[in-house]
Amino acid sequence: MAVTIESVEDILSRREGKPRELIEVLQDIQEAEGHLSEDAMSLVSERLGVPLIEVYRVANFYKAFSLCPRGRHLITVCMGTACHVWGAPRMLDEVIGQLGVDPGETTEKGVFTVETVNCLGACALGPVVVLDGRYHDHMTPASSANWSSRSAMPTRRRPPRMPTLNSIDDLADLREERTAEPKRGKCVPCRVGIARMREIVTDITEGRGRPEQLDLLVDLGERVAESLCGLGKTAANPVLSTLRYFREEYEAHIHQRRCPAGVCRALIRYTIDRDQCTGCGACRTACPHEAITGEKKEPHAINAEACTKCGICRETCKFDAVTVL
After folding, report:
1. What is the C-alpha separation between 242 and 84, in angstroms, rounded?
2. Which pTM does this prediction carry?
3. Rounded-to-integer distance, Cα 191 and Cα 205, Å
4. Do 20 and 87 fall into the same domain?
5. DSSP-assigned letters across all residues of 136-199
6. What CATH number has the domain bearing residue 106?
7. Domain stop point among 96, 119, 149
8. pLDDT per position as a tens digit, 142-165
9. In a domain? residue 9
10. What is the pLDDT of residue 51?
11. Is 199 among the domain residues?
């Protein structure tokens, strides 16, 4: 939607023209026009007597504002810590895989815009995805399969589970991303320590872990806790706490090259139990990579070469026929 000067003038005319109204004015323009254009921000700067650089600073700081036109439908994926643990990265991969855009981009025909936020404040319902202002809780890749062609996103619920080693990998990744933001990760413990911890956890989840790396993780985590800021002091806590309470999972990854939770893709493979499979075809239909074959009412099979281990087949099957080895 093109931003018109007339509409911005109309919004400004309903205000007192005070600098303190900057955020409220930008919110009104964002709601009316879908984004904040350069012309609109210049006019706001002039009318409110606020430096243009301050207008840009506010517009860039708050996730609610967009400097580029958004699509007709806005998809917001929460990447907060709780949602991260419950599988938000896989959820995001499925969304951008279907639409063919990266976070912050809009589809070619201007239909969908995909964005991520650090937290939506609905941690108990994660993973949470918001479509056009409507919250959808406990989302999974299976529950969003092919939903881009429908007008509404279905809500799927799943029982809570304990964090897994793959989740710790995600948390370490999240902490690294946060400390890489401007004005963060400047001191050596954070900048170097978190990056190194991320490398070690990645090695473990991908089957390259070594026994001595566990003690190294603990040592690095304690060093990171010496950081100067509050974020740095707590950055290594997810890894340190899971090493303390779930060390056997780390050891299974290293010594047995096995993921007890069945989520680390490099250490698992999916198969279908012929005795349990009814041949309903639900998994074959849901598979986005056409890796499942089989006739109706006959046991199906998974093509290991085509399978990306996304887990959609397992979540779709109502007969627990899909197992992880």
Report:
1. 15
2. 0.46
3. 22
4. no
5. E-S--TGGGTTGGGSSS------------HHHHHHHHHHHHHHHTSTTSS-SHIIIIIIHHHHH
6. 3.40.30.10
7. 149
8. 766 555 554 444 433 333 333 444
9. yes
10. 86
11. yes
